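Weekly structure sync, notes
Attendees: PL (lead), two postdocs, one rotation student
Agenda item 3: pending single-chain targets
PL asked that the sequence for the first pending target be pasted directly into the notes so everyone works from the same version. It is reproduced below exactly as submitted, 333 residues in total.
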Amino acid sequence: TAWLLLNGQLPAEEELAAWTAEIGRHAELHENIKKLVEGFRHDAHPMGVFLSVVGALSTLFPDAKRVLDAESRRTQIARLIAQVPAVAACAYRHSVGRPYVAPDPELSYAGNFLSMLYRGIEREYRPDPVLERALDVLFILHADHEQNCSTSAMRGIGSSQADPFAALAGAAAALYGPLHGGANEAVMHMFLEIGDPDIAEQWMHDAIAQKRLVMGFGHRVYKSGDSRVPTMRRCLEDLAAWKDDDTWIRMSDGLQKVMIGEKGIHPNLDFPAGPAYYMMGFDIEMFTPLFVMSRITGWTAHYLEQNADNRLIRPLSAYHGTDQREVLPIGER
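Predicted structure, written out during the meeting:
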């Protein structure tokens, strides 16, 4: 999927093998980055740590400044795709007081991330196939989503010929907000607030009556339902069967039944993604860094496209102020 977004077509077998090997070569974090992460408070939000560290990565790779060199740009993109999981995992493990785990070249991209997150003292870590598959699905469904807030930030910063590390830090900052990437965190907090699937329908009736903002529903692009939701729903069902716990499935069914029935508003991808991440064992504060990991391929593809035929992005604005004002001396104002 990453190759497809970056190159416009699926890779041949030898291209995929070379691409996988290239990502593997760049996966290890520099010691300075590990020390930088250790400098944050243990209770710092992983997303705040993440966007700070990604911005600092360019200081380790001076060639990243050669943004007009196509080969250099591609190298930085490979570095980003390879190192973003390590940065996210390092930030998480620092928050729980556990040491950094080096990447394992024997594992898949998703499996390697799970290893860097959860590996303990065992000699060999092998992720559960259900978790690995679910994470792959989430990565693919979130990989790109046209000109949203964070992607526009990536392109806007990139259009100034900033290096891709700086551009990605800005995109990650845009994704941090609860109206964008943080929405899946808000969805899970909502589910936990409701607590009991048996009261989900009444909770939604009350929320609609009180005109409360309900996260996970509606979309600026999808007016009759998010096309990604059915795939994520099947993944959610697999996780529920794996855990033998249908709590969040039943709750989501009750909530969306009322919202669709009363308002005609359908859920977006954040609605099933929040409980899916939760059932996979991720702390809620890790949801947005996981979103960044998914979106890294789409963002970098947009960066390359922007730089291929670049023009500095400067949105137009319309002035609605007073036409002419007299400037009074300060004592007379």
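Discussion points:
- The two ends are 61 Å apart (CA to CA).
- The CA atoms of residues 104 and 112 lie 6 Å apart.
Action: rotation student to compare against the earlier draft before next sync.
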